[in-house]
Amino acid sequence: MNRDGYVARWRGREYQASPDGDDIRLYQPGPDEGFTEVRPGRYVRVVPAAEVDDLAYVRTTCTWQGQPFIVLAEHEGWLRLEYTGGRWPVAEAMGLEAFDFGVYQGWAPAAEVADLGEQRV
Fold first, then answer.
1. Nearest to 24 by CA among 49, 2, 7
2. Residue 39: beta bridge partners?
3. pLDDT tens digits along 16-36
4. Helix (H) or strand (E) holding 93
5. Cβ-proximal residues to 51 (8 Å cutoff; 6+ apart), any chain
6. Where on the tree of life does the source sit, at the highest rank (predicted)?
7. With contact defined as beta carbons under 8 Å apart, do 104 and 98 qualify?
8. In whole angstroms, what is the distance from residue 65 CA to residue 86 CA?
9. How far is C-alpha 55 from the geometric centre of its chain's CA atoms?
10. What string of DSSP letters covers 22-77?
């Protein structure tokens, strides 16, 4: 499972979340009391930030060819990765694309990726 975004704990459950000033938007895939459908399979409820027990940014990290990456996406056995090592010669040697200044990304076979885990930042 690939997660990259905010999560909030509210009333004992964890939700995908989005901070919005003094409020937090909570998201879930199904209907529930107080949640409004914003599109099929996506429901939102806005709660005061003071009611949220925990808010954190979670991203999925891994290593590929011994180098550190974050996982951006997953598609048919491949993972879209962003290099977090910050060394241009390494990124170039791995054949990564320069996505932006200092940002290098590429596709890796999921079977070659190791140490998949979540990091709270």
1. 49
2. 42
3. 999 999 999 999 999 999 999
4. helix 88-93
5. 10
6. Bacteria
7. yes
8. 15
9. 14
10. TEEEEEESS--TT-EEEETTEEEEEEEGGG-SEEEEEEEEEEETTEEEEEEEEETT
d(CA 117, CA 96): 22
0.85 exceeded by pTM: no
Q: Among residues 23, 19, 43, 46, which one has the least CA distance to residue 32?
A: 43
- Cβ–Cβ < 8 Å for 91, 65: no
Q: What's the rounded Cα separation, in Å, for the pair 29 and 75? A: 21
